[in-house]
Design a protein that fits this description.
CATH topology of the largest domain: Rossmann fold
Domain Xylulose 5-phosphate/Fructose 6-phosphate phosphoketolase N-terminal: 21-383
Number of helices: 28
InterPro entries: Phosphoketolase, THDP-binding, Transketo_C/PFOR_II, Xul5P/Fru6P_PKetolase, Xul5P/Fru6P_PKetolase_C, Xul5P/Fru6P_PKetolase_CS, Xul5P/Fru6P_PKetolase_N, Xul5P/Fru6P_PKetolase_ThDP_BS
CATH superfamily of the largest domain: Thiamin diphosphate (ThDP)-binding fold, Pyr/PP domains
CATH architecture of the largest domain: 3-Layer(aba) Sandwich
Strand content: 5-15%
Number of domains: 3
Radius of gyration: 30 Å
GO biological process, one term: carbohydrate metabolic process
Largest sheet: 6 strands, parallel
Oligomer: single chain
CATH class of the largest domain: Alpha Beta
Enzyme class: lyase
Shape: elongated
Number of strands: 22
Strand order of the largest sheet: 12-9-13-14-16-15
GO molecular function, one term: aldehyde-lyase activity
Distance between the termini: 76 Å
């Protein structure tokens, strides 16, 4: 590469060596202490400082963990500590390699932070033993940088998101440097490959910096890594093409590598500060240009400093060092001796005093107070979080004098609220979406801020492009990158809002899973982690309005994924109109420690509730709509229930048909906003008690439930209920194409005609008296489909249907 480690080490003084002999000795000793702790975590349950000969009974019975990336990561950490102290840096560290927690844990312990958070893991022999034993041990902690790990905002349970999390942390944090170690196996994932482009969205004036360190140690579990086997030239071209300035540190001799890394890393910090100073000192009105930010390629052996060979096979520098380099020390005396020799090679007797604490001169190597990486408050973002300032959502209300008479786009109404929310939080709130902000009718937000764009601008971009160097709307056509930015942003104390097409929010299924797991641990088990802002996901461009995109864009199954996660974390809202959406949106932006999923379409929809009634309805989460019911004072013949905007309209239309053609039928109309209200209160905090549920849905009457998503989900949520056997749920049946809205509803039997037939079939006396009506309804279905196929749209009668006054 053009910027090699040797070139960058020149002219540093001391014969091209940035570190004095004393600095080198201390840094290497601190590194050895980190590595010793890493190996101790992997192997030991007794004899933590090897003050007696290592025996089989000192070894854990199950050896679970990964060694391969740990020494490279601890090497990086030691050098970060030096620069934090030298330049008083505000810096956090994200560990990207899979199962790389020992590196972070060991440093947290040596910094004293771990013992402060967990006093029983004290800085002595007894505390060290507990620290070792808990790792990958029942009742202990996992091998990722889980929420239990101080200093972590990136668990790494799934590879690919470290860099996007890092950029999310850097946005609007002008003094923060986020160092992200990217594993070379992780670098093969799609999300990570895309996230290199995040540098086109980082503004050096208002944002912090991200220093990626690609850790090329050559192997995954059992295969070489792609980036470690391409030529240095190809690697350089790749990163230069991504807009980075790569610097390389490579080798295996610790003394040489320390000198090289010290020079390269210090140069990178100086480059970062020079870029920021230039941008921030430019004359007022000067728009910053995208800089070429520095990055580091660290090429070190896999499992660096472990034994070179085992049983004639290469160990250090091979795939065998990825997980547990020595697998059977309990049953193989030869291998037990090898583990002992390996651990003693770090010379623990020189590193820890008689009590078991790191010796004083090495403790001085770490920063102090909040400058310690694992004590940095940005890695416990709830400590920094301030509630959003929000306008009064009531000021944006749609005027509804009578239900079901006017149509508006709910998301357009919400956009005006979000616009003003952004104006009031111009350093702590961002909106995320994959090139769909305008498509989702949220374009009013651009009145507060354009789209962040640090790449090249063309004159025509000014003509409605809404691109801005200081924009706060984050758009890139990668849901993974967006969600990673969003998570990093809220994990470091800020607020956000994400909108996505319904069918493609599935792209972040597993990211949602990982974040929900993080929140569950943090909220329920870790009192020292302060609450962070909720992840707010607006799902729009819904299954029932895909007449131009077709079958590929029809999938409401994300809700099924959400319901699998902890009830303490997940919330699902299906507001039936714009005023309900405003109420829900305000509630979600004010909340913390949740993933809020809001389902609301962008197309014009019928409006039902004035703002006062919308607030009451959303507060209850579920309720009877009196205007659509005629059972007051009587026992209903049937309960017509619904959740979702289109299902609500079709259910209301079915009620109108029945009340016209079967005037004596008693119908109770129930609308659901908060989906988890369907669950028992013993299963979810928002669940209804049995008495409340039976009061709404009765104990023995038929319930026709028109649902936005897959019908099985409602059955899943209500299967324990008294009247579950009488629940007849209509939802999406995986049928669709380029259909009109009503035709698509008919294909999946959520339409007004099929719902009315359902009622006739399940109310015994209507089976005898409404046969003619049922035949007429069947005819309406045929006519509607034929009209759509003939004219390409639904009939005027359907398109302009209103609730009868």
């Amino acid at each position: 590469m053009s910027s090699t480690s040797k070139e960058l080490a020149k002219d540093k003084g001391q014969g091209g060596k940035p570190l004095s002999a004393g600095e080198l000795q201390k840094m290497d000793a601190y590194w050895r202490a980190c590595n010793y702790l890493c190996v101790g975590m992997l192997y030991l349950r007794a004899n933590p400082l090897l003050r007696e000969p290592l025996k089989a009974e000192h070894i854990k019975n199950r050896l679970l963990g990964h060694w391969g990336s740990d020494p490279g990561q601890t090497f990086v950490w030691v050098h970060l500590n030096r620069l934090i102290k030298k330049y008083d840096l505000d810096l956090i560290y994200l560990s990207g390699p899979g199962h790389g927690a020992p590196a972070t844990l060991s440093n947290s312990y040596l910094e004293g932070v771990y013992s402060e958070v967990y006093p029983d893991k004290s800085e002595d022999v007894a505390g060290m033993l507990k620290f070792f034993k808990q790792f990958s041990f029942p009742g202990g902690i996992g091998s990722h940088c889980t929420p239990e790990t101080p200093g972590s905002i990136h668990e790494g349970g799934e590879l690919g998101y470290s860099l996007s999390h890092g950029f999310g942390a850097a946005f609007d944090n002008p003094d923060l440097i986020v160092t992200v170690v990217v594993g070379d196996g992780e670098a093969e994932t799609g999300p990570l490959a895309t996230s290199w482009h995040s540098n086109k969205f980082l503004n050096p004036v208002r944002d912090g910096a991200v220093l990626p360190i690609l850790h090329l140690n050559g192997y995954k579990i059992a295969n070489p890594t792609v980036l470690a086997r391409i030529t240095p030239e190809e690697l350089e071209w790749m990163f230069k093409g991504f807009g980075w300035e790569p610097h390389v540190v490579e080798g295996d001799d610790p003394a040489t590598m320390h000198q090289l890394m010290a020079g390269v890393m210090e140069d990178c910090v100086k480059e970062i500060r020079a870029i920021q100073k230039k941008a921030r000192s430019a004359p007022k009105g000067t728009e910053p240009e995208r800089p070429r930010w520095p990055m580091i390629v660290l090429r070190s052996p896999k499992g660096w400093t472990c034994p070179k060979e085992i049983d004639g096979h290469k160990l250090e520098g091979s795939w065998r060092a990825h997980q547990m380099p020595i697998l059977d020390p309990v049953t193989n005396p030869k291998h037990l001796k090898l583990v002992e020799k390996w651990m003693k090679s770090y010379k623990p007797e020189e590193l820890f005093d008689e009590s078991g604490k790191l010796i004083a001169e090495l403790r001085e190597m770490a920063p102090v107070g909040k400058r310690r990486i694992t004590a940095n408050p940005h890695a416990n973002g709830g400590l920094l979080r301030k509630p959003m300032e929000l306008p009064d959502f009531r000021d944006y209300a749609v005027k509804v004098e009578k239900p079901g008479q006017i149509e508006v786009s709910p998301t357009d109404v919400l956009a005006h609220f979000l616009r003003d929310a952004m104006k009031m939080n111009m350093t702590s709130f961002r909106v995320f979406g994959p090139d769909e902000t305008a498509s989702n009718k949220l374009q009013a937000i651009y009145e507060a801020s354009g789209k962040t764009w640090m790449a090249k601008l063309l004159p025509e971009d000014a003509d409605g492009g809404d691109l801005a160097r200081d924009g706060r709307v984050m758009e890139i056509l990668s849901e993974h990158t967006l969600e990673g930015w969003f998570e990093g942003y809220v994990l470091t104390g800020r607020h956000g809002f994400f909108s996505s097409y319904e069918s493609f929010v599935h792209i972040i299924d597993s990211m949602f899973n990982q974040h929900a797991k993080w929140l569950e641990k943090s909220k329920l088990e870790l009192r020292w982690r302060a609450p962070i802002s909720s992840i707010n996901l607006l799902i729009t461009s819904l299954v029932w309005r895909q007449d131009h995109n077709g079958f590929t864009h029809q999938d409401p199954g994300f809700l099924d994924v959400v319901t699998n996660k902890s009830p303490e974390i997940t919330r699902i809202y299906l507001p039936p109109d714009a005023n309900c959406l405003l109420s829900v949106g305000d509630h979600c932006l004010r909340s913390s420690n949740y993933v809020n999923v809001i389902v609301a379409d962008k197309a014009p929809h019928m409006q039902y509730l004035n703002m006062d009634n919308a607030i009451k309805h959303c507060t209850k989460g579920i309720g009877i709509w009196d205007f659509a019911s005629n059972d007051a004072g009587d026992e209903p013949d049937v309960v017509m229930a619904c959740a979702g905007d289109i299902p609500t309209e079709e259910a209301l239309a079915a009620v109108a048909i029945l009340r016209e053609h079967c005037s004596d039928v008693k119908i109770r109309f129930v609308n659901v906003v908060d989906l988890f209200r369907l669950m028992p209160d013993t299963e979810h905090p928002h669940g209804l008690s049995e008495r409340e549920f039976d009061g709404l849905f009765t104990k023995n009457k038929p319930v026709i439930f028109n649902f936005h998503a897959y019908a099985s989900l409602v059955h899943k949520l209500t299967y324990k209920r008294t009247n579950h056997k009488n629940f007849h749920v209509r939802g999406y049946k995986e049928k669709g194409n380029i259909n009109t809205p009503l035709e698509l509803a008919i294909l999946n039997q959520i339409d007004r005609f099929d719902l009315a037939i359902d009622v006739i079939d399940r109310v015994p006396r209507l089976q005898l008296t409404a046969a003619h009506t049922k035949e007429w309804l069947k005819g309406q279905i045929i006519e509607a489909v034929n009209y759509a196929h003939e004219n390409g749209i639904d009939s005027k009668e359907i398109r302009e249907w209103r609730w009868p006054l």
